[in-house]
């Protein structure tokens, strides 16, 4: 009988340094993956919270235009509009009315002052023109009225035009006084309102008595 030598099983090699390094790498990759998943979950939570905050805080609309808060509403009457011409929120309508008020006030201030001054002062060539309203219908006073009317119309239509980007009646500061502020605007409105009453009073009294602005005082 033949005899065969069966080789003995080889002994297993001991775990070397390379196996430990592999385990460390696998652990590091697993830890990095877990950290990445936690970071992604946190980002999603923050993004969801930001979207929720945006939805919960809508942009506030500006308050409606309030004519009672504009220049000219001052003591003792405050905002005085018994006829209800100025509507809350109607900025364009208020601007038109305010521009008309300032314009009439400025004309009335000049008219009231002129009604008094013409009693004492006569321009050369106008010595025979009577004082008061009769000056408009008596030559050469009529010519002066027509010239003044044309000049005022040309200035209003071509030079002193309303600018939507500025306050009503703001035509700059041609004299360079540097006094265009809230206080002076309040003063102008008050003086213009008073002058409108004064001018209509002078005209009404002269139509009733035939006396000019100074003669009405007995002077």
UniProtKB/TrEMBL annotation:
GO function term, MF aspect, one: chlorophyll binding
Segments of skewed composition (Basic residues): 43-53
Top-level taxon of the source organism: Eukaryota
InterPro entries attached to this UniProt entry: Chloro_AB-bd_pln (IPR001344), Chloroa_b-bind (IPR022796)
Binding positions for chlorophyll b per the UniProt entry: 106, 146, 162
Region (Disordered): 43-62
Places the protein is found: Plastid, Chloroplast
TM region positions: 15-36
Main location: plastid
GO process annotations (BP): photosynthesis, light harvesting
Chloroplast keyword on record: yes
The protein, known as: Light harvesting protein
Record organism: Emiliania huxleyi (Coccolithophore)
